[in-house]
## 1
Amino acid sequence: MMSRPDFRHPELFVRLLEHRVVTLTRGLCTVILMGVALFLGYSNTEAADGRSNSGIVLAQFSSGGGSEHLIGAQDLVEITVFNVPELSKSLQVANTGTINFPLLGEITVAGKTARQVEQDLTTRLGVEYLQNPQVTVYVKENNSRNITISGAVRKPGVYPLETRTSLLQAIAIAGDFNESAETTVLVLRGAGRGHSAAKFDIKAIQKGQMADPTLRAGDRVVVGESAIKKGFNTILKSMPLIGAFGAF
């Protein structure tokens, strides 16, 4: 059962009405062509080179990139609705894991694949607004799969999590510890009520006494700074290189 049209968007309503008419017309033409093909006996014939000579092939293509990627906050998602440009948008996922889509409002996309979002939008648009909508979803910018490494490392910053990465590998990516680093590292995971933290001893991991954890997208690695080492390094930098003892 179709809902009442939303007259707050008259131009979009007209486009949707045109889409329905075009879809129904194409459906009628398809039925006629298939009837003609069956009448002429082409549906079950084989071409001379051995390939099937079937008349019409219907295919739905899912997005190529990002089919295995789980969408997350700050990802840029490209959504295309065939023949309805007003509904084709590039939308950035909010920190709440949602996008604001025309007509449908706020939709949760975080934790889903592009294919799953395609199916969700196709179902919702088909219920109230479009006849057999063709929706394509593509992750245009993958901004959610990052880790942040800060504290006493040589190259602190935000790094892409492209492959399976352990804590030791992450520290190596950040240029290893600097001169004042402690061997104790804090890993912060999640946000809001779902956040958690864990402390790891890098020396124990290197000796095989503690497991080397695998990092997840969004993890924040904080390398502690030793006050003793920092003070010692400050003293070393202030002393002249004269090879003799002096007051400091």
## 2
Amino acid sequence: MPLGSWWCFVPICAGVCMTLGMMSCMSFNSLLFCPHRAAKRLQQPRPVSCFLGLYFGLLVCLILTVTQWFCLRGRRLEFLHIPKNAGTSVEAAGLASNIYWGAFELSLMGRVVMPDGSKCSAYHAPPSAAPGINTYDRTKVFCITRHPYDRAVSEYKYLLSDDAYWADFYAAVFDNGLYDYPACTKEGLNHFITNVMIKYKQGQRYIDDCHHVSQTEYIWAHDGSQLCTNIVRTDDLPDKFDALMISHGYGVRMGNPVNAADPCDVSANSLTPQTRLLLNEVYEDDFRLLNYSKY
């Protein structure tokens, strides 16, 4: 249990002691003041006592559950998964310590319908566009951000890797241009990014499982409130991530990155000036609010 939550054991122990005390008082009261009647009852089946035992057992469970909810909500860390920003690595690190973030969080399983009609994995959906998701309420939220150029290139390379078995489906459904040019080429990279950015500007913001949504849409709500207050850059991994875990009393540590396979010899340096201008326009808020430089 994270540091800062140990005090939750105080009301838990108090609830257990109160329940045991009440049960003991009931038994000793009968033995002390009505010994003959108590002795007679002890020799007979006592269904009422069984129900009382069940009642107090449920009471203890209720006390534990409510205490857990009030104590740990607002103190535990919740991971907000922004696609293509080392999210799988964070989730794998959490799972190794029996902490279920992102894809492993029960409340974030399944898919949600987005404003443009696309369907996204719930753990990929920005909370501001999916109000039915309340996993992040009353928690300390952390997230990972990445330079918009590198993030766009990473998406292209990822869809061409063996891990993205759904790439063919997305290419057909969303007509994202992934296979219009030879794979892993400068021409293919710039065509793909240009195609999806044009669709993004036309209102298809949530295609490809929300992988192109601006990072600021995850971090800030429509009313301007900041949901993710603990921001770690991919450039600072794993050190800043591990430091965040230590500061909150978590034993989670990030090992080698997951999804690190690199099937393509392309990078942000492969982007044409026209593609960069388009990324600058679409992700203007990411550059400005997250302090990334355009080049």
## 3
Amino acid sequence: MSDAVLIQLADSVVADLNAATLSQTFTAVRKYRPPKSLEDVKSLTVLVVPGAVEQEFVSRNSQVETYRVDVAVAKKLDVPSTAGTNTIESLSDPLAYLVEEIKDLFAGARPSAYPTAICSRIVNDPAFYPDRMDDHRVFLSVIQLFYHTVR
């Protein structure tokens, strides 16, 4: 039995991330859900989560399908609770740059393992979650990749 298109796209995102040369080293993994607790995040973690599927029927014989794949970038910031914001920013800036690199990697690209789709939209809102940074000292950013196919 073959995998659903959404799973094939998520696996392709994992493979493309792991093959890319980016500013930081990591191994991306696919999960159906992120960790329940941010305390589980210790080192740089890149998770790929199958997100959603939309179908729009444009005629009797044709439909446009949109698949959302989420990429979460998280890292525990080793900052003493008494440290100032400059320390948090200096640790977060390279992670924000990594998020930008990941967005650039997929913008307008076709996944290596599913070339009939194209990444036509990327959403990274918010760019990071300040409450996670404040409460847990974790940098967390979620990138939503939207792939379109026509059948």
## 4
Amino acid sequence: MAQIIYGIHPVKEALKPTPPRMRKILMGSQKPHPALQAILDLARVKKIPVTFTSKETLGKMTGGGLHQNIAAIVDGTSYSTVGEILSAWRKGGTKALLLILDGIQDPQNLGSLLRTALGSGVHGVIIPKDRAVGITPAVVKASAGTAIHMPIARVVNMASTLEALKKEGIWVYGASGEAKDLIYRLDFKHGSGHCDRCRGKRDQAPGEAKM
């Protein structure tokens, strides 16, 4: 299923994989500035067709989002499984670092968290299938395109997923705005040295297995 993404950074990031999961780029400017021209140049190299259209058309396609004169039609989001994330981590030979987000409903919040996760070296993100936002165009925009590169798994039962991760030797840490200890003071090398950071919406613990 095709999906619309928009904004300079999301479209540029979506062009980076080889091959890109992109079908077409739509541009709302006949005289692109350097940032847009760089995308045009990369699209030419990756052999992605570009169609010039109006800003009004882009506005309608993106639901009024801040499109910055560019959008793209890409293949729908391909979620990973928890097993795939763990398999990739094991092959890397590094300490596990996962981010679990339970009940995040605001696309801006999820996008910001994904952007931070990628910059922090997180191996994968786990979110629930129900009562939480998925990877939407608004999330991709808010993440500055990093959502495209981050392995993300959606699960039905968050509590059982946490239990399964703990059986893998991964320590689970719950994050709360009311916690007394700052996350920056925690020693994440405790125990096996692997950890999950769990974050839920305000006043809601992330599942039943919060530690």
